[in-house]
Amino acid sequence: MAALTPLLISAAPPRPPRIVSINPCIDAVLMQVADPAQIAGISHYSQDARATSIPLAQARRFHATSGTAEEVVALAPDVVITGPHVEPATIAALKRMHIALVQYPVPESVAESAAQVRAIAALAGHADRGGMLAGRIAAAAQPSRATPLPALIWQSGGLVPGAGTLSDDLLRRAGFRNMSATYGLKQWDVLPLEYLIANPPRVLLSVGAAEVGEDRLTSHPAVRRLGQRITIAPYPVRLMNCGGPTIIAAMTRLKQVRRAFGS
User: Fold this and answer.
1) Is 6 helix (H, G, I), strand (E, B) or coil?
2) Fe/B12 periplasmic-binding domain location, by residue (predicted)?
């Protein structure tokens, strides 16, 4: 029996990695693909009602950090997962402590986001969960067969997502045609109010209106005078922040708005 002990120990499955996420979009994925005990820390943004992409009650069960080197290292993770932007001091500290750092770019399409979900789940040791979540995302994002309706997503200050963004992909899949290119806007650009008035979309998705009641620009008298030429639909801020499981909620909202216009 003593001779068999080393063999039995070596055959034991590896311990799932202890993970710290310093990105709220990564947090949202981890909540669905990792065991809670694996998640040593999440981004402080996930505990902010204005920025979170997960329920606050769920987020508050976890330790949150602002992403500084001291906070992250103190949690002794096996791996830190984040987005494309990380403070150089944090990167240097993680290297010194031999803590793995994995960064993911901002997804620009449903397919890219689903691939990230699978990768994060595999890193957490639960590839099967990643496959299931990616499948739910793909099902929610099935392209609509409705005639594309001219639409625009309008954020505070007139910021508009254009071609090459996840929002653009979601609009198309929900049965809309993003009018960003019509105005000659770049991937992310600001649309002057005058341009909107001169050539309005059929649907204006007002980001933040769901939280504050109305946006300052969409409540402008000139916009109001457009009357039946334009429909202003509230679009929650949290649906703009991330891909991953947020895509499911975003597609639900977009398809709800599109159904009001028939086929």
Assistant:
1) helix
2) 19-225
